[in-house]
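Notebook p. 47: complex prediction with FE2/S2 (inorganic) cluster.
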Amino acid sequence: MRIRLNINGKDYESDVEPRTLLVDFIRDVAGLKGTHIGCETGSCGACMVLLDGKPVKSCLMLAAQAEGKKIVTVEGLSEGGKLNAVQKSLSQKKALQCGFCAAGFSIMGTWILENEQDTDYERVKSDLAGVVCRCSGYEPIINAIVEAAKNERKD
Amino acid sequence: MSERTEKFFMGKGSFVDDIQLPNMLYLEIVRSKKAHAKILEVKGGLTAKDIPLTLTSTGESYRMGRNYEVEPVFAKGKVLYYGQPVAAVYDKDKYKARDLVESVEIAYQELKPVLSIEESLSSSPIHENRKDNIVARFEIGKRFSPESEVKVSDELYMERVLPNPLETRGIVAYYNSGKLNVWISTQSVYSIKNGLSKILGLDPAEVNVFQADTGGAFGSKSAVYPEYVIACYLSMKTKQPVKWIESREEHISSTRPGRGAKAELQLYGNKKGKIEGIEGKIYVDVGAYADDLSSTSPSWIGYQITGPYLIENVYIEGYSVYTNKSPLGPYRGAGRPEAAFFIERMIDKFADQIGMDPVELRLKNLPERPFQSPTGLKVLPSKSFFEEGIKSINYSELKKRNVGVSFGILLPAVFGGESAKIKIDEGVVKVWLGGNAHWQRHELFVKRILKEILEVPEEKVVLMNGDTTELQKGIGTWGSRSAITAGNALYKAAMLLKEKAEKMNINSVEQLLNSDLSAEYYENMQLDPTMISFLLTAAVAEMRDGIKPVIEEVWAYYDVGEPLSEEAVYGQITGGLLMGVQEVLSEALIYDSKGKPLPETMAATGIAYSINAPKYHVKIKTFGRSNTPHGAKGVGEAGTVGAPPAAARAVEKLLNKRVNKLPLDFDLLA
Ligand code: FES
Ligand code: FES
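Predicted complex, structure tokens below:
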């Protein structure tokens, strides 16, 4: 089955099996390895991407279902080699340890900054409920996103 | 800013599943769907006939040869746990390889599975060559005749828990021109190298192991597993690269979980709150096969059962036992949380029984002078530390809420020491450590040590992934050891490098960076009481939605020695605390009546999400430096040691019902 997907503004086209998951297309066809697989059952959010601006778990979708939509992966957030506000904050505050959850939290964090009116600690904490970090205990990540939102407001 | 994190945001990490080699084969494992059965026939796939090998004990679990049953690479004749590898299939296409799993037919004759410590003690042996299901028996301390006023008895249990790092296990093996090259997600390239060469009968010089970026481990990535041997064998046979990536479902059924420990204890004391002795039995369910670490685990728990306290009399019998469950491995803390949970829960019960405040009772039992427990454990006096901690968390106020407090110690696994290598290469200072786990903390302390000794700016220092071709000898990252052991080795390697530079009249950082100097250092180490950190943890429980107990707030007042980087220590503490709390509330690996794991997804294993995170109050303290040049103590497992007893007590107060079994029993809520 011929599938063409628009990822980070670029078209990728390939012959794949109809059952190909979106996450496998992103990783194996487009070669974008920043999106990870942690569970393949929607438990962890390591595979999170933006689909027409909405955060989705790319292990829960077929690649074919994403045709005609705009997909943004973690690589697409840091244009021209510069981290976006959320990524910068996560990095500066040393919020992550092993880094395997980096894609999930940068995608969710970016969505929060763009879409939430209210970005206090509790709001961010509940928005992040679908993404797992096994290392940090979450607080450092929540703080980094709250801080990024604050700085954004100031600018 | 840290380049290490930055690359993850750019998608430039190199985790093992990111590695793509030409002509790569995808390996899939066909696993037992029975917990205990005779294998009548296997049709299709690679099986024990092709690879009749058996694992050896390596990694964190390697100590010495003992008499126990070691896991075969593929089940031979019988399957002894649900998820045990029976056969393997492969294809150059990942999806097709998965389809092939269905093509293998296995005929079983089912046997009754042994699924608990109690059943293990009363059932006939699951290994026919043995007389019972006992792996090993230990005696810890000395028998004594209690003549105390007060006797406190209880039975305590900590359920099995999965390590569940966000990245599952995985390997790429490529046998090429007489060398076996292995890329792997691991805590120790050395235990993988030693294990694989021993099991496959290869000269260690033929085996190169490279650490891929490692997405968490918590104990699960230190030892050699059957799948690694199969992947290597297949690559040797086909001369093609072979990749195996564990699915989460396989992680649940087949990666080694931790805990599964039970204690039947009696604590003796007087009505004034003095603890006079502790005795009883400790059992550990090691699953279907054992290794050094799991078989000796009851004795390791018993060794530290007196915690920071002065308890003159101790007598513990320890038993490790076989069951039809996946083999036990280390999980964050590995024995330390068990010991802390057992003693701390007994102390709370003692306090209740004599009507004394549990914190007051604890303070009363701390030694004034260095104390050697009858188990052999040596601890330093810690009263002033805990007294200050109690003030710092404002206990007199907290007492009015449903609060639990635990006092604890953290024993770092320094045994074996560690190695480090520094090499200056085109203006960059490259560092390899024997312990590989690439948390940010490693990177931060490496930069900090090199800045201190060599004065090189942090951005010029790069911590490399583990690589057996660069650094030949090393141990690994586990047991809260890295800051002490790897920190020590790096410190001394840096001193050597400095000496070399001085001899060559290099006297500016610039000249140093332009040189091609290198230095390597290895040192064995022994546990010394100055390396033991003290932990004060408190937790407050509340009822959410009127039905669900939650831990609202947690306090950690932790002694980490000289902290190498406060920021990174902080995240390790909160991460550990959350795991510890969750182990009380819901995190567990539970089996159904046939021995199949109940959880089918990661979420169903009860792990914590952001909404489960309590409010943390963390204070990082230096209560004396360790006997190492940089003064660090351990920290990695602090939270999982301190949180469970504190959280269990908090919930106990909330529900007004004794909590002696983890995770919380839903019956308690009725
Ligand atoms: S891999 Fe998609 S949610 Fe875990
Ligand atoms: S940093 Fe390891 S999972 Fe988040």
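Notes: Chain B touches chain A through 59 residues (CB under 8 Å). The two ends of chain B are 51 Å apart (CA to CA).
Next step: compare against the earlier run before touching the bench.
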